[in-house]
Every structure is written in C-alpha cells, then in structure tokens.
Amino acid sequence: MNELSLAVVGLDFPNADRSNRRFEMALCVPGEPVHLVREPRNKADPRAVAVVSCRAIQLGYLTAERCGWIGARIGSGEAFEALFQDHGRHAAVIRVRFGGGTVTLPAPRPTVEDEPFDWGA
C-alpha cells in the first residue's frame, strides 16, 4: 500500500506553545503539505508520529495503530509526501504517499449544503 488516508487524533489537546490544534485544522486547506515527525522520546509512546501543518503548528498524532508502521517507513528513509485531506468532527484526515509520485486526493465528501432539499418529505 503506497498511498493511504490517515486519521490525525488528539485535536483537543493543547500544544506546548499553547497553540490550538482545532483552530489550526480549521485553517488547513485540502492539498496543502503537512509534515510527519517521529517522536522517539515521547513518554506516552516512543513510536508516536506527530502531524504538523505547513505553518509549523502541530495538529495532533497519527493513531497508535498506524504509528509503528508509518514511523518505521519514515525512519528507513523511504520517500514520502503528505497532504492535508479533510476536516473531520473528531479527527483531521491526511493523505500520504510512499515511494515517490504525486499524492492524489479523493473527491471531497458531500456536505449537508451540497445535498438537495426534498420539499416533499
């Protein structure tokens, strides 16, 4: 699997610099780059991978289930590209591509405003 979408969790936790992760997520635009940063000295999980916006503000972390695998790929020096994909209620979503090439973003999810109103209901 060279390209996948990943959840970014921990949006409600404050950053050490007191920046607000949810506010930063609201500023993110689909397709803008994000950075993945391994945190081997993280006391809660030495496999943690932080997700940082292009404005250098931490958005949160990859889920614990994905950190080991993604962190190992990053640690091995494998080429990758990561983009912000979507805003979620409980998590941000990023898109990552390993092994070179360009990341492709899936079509955006329809919003309530995009769905036609059924006046006959």
From TrEMBL:
This protein's UniProt keywords: Hydrolase, Metal-binding
Pfam families, per the entry: HIRAN (PF08797)
Keyword Hydrolase among record annotations: yes
Domain HIRAN: 25-76
UniProt keyword annotation of Hydrolase present: yes
Top-level taxon of the source organism: Bacteria
InterPro entries the UniProt entry points to: HIRAN
Single Gene Ontology MF annotation: hydrolase activity, acting on acid anhydrides, in phosphorus-containing anhydrides
Identification of the protein by name: HIRAN domain-containing protein
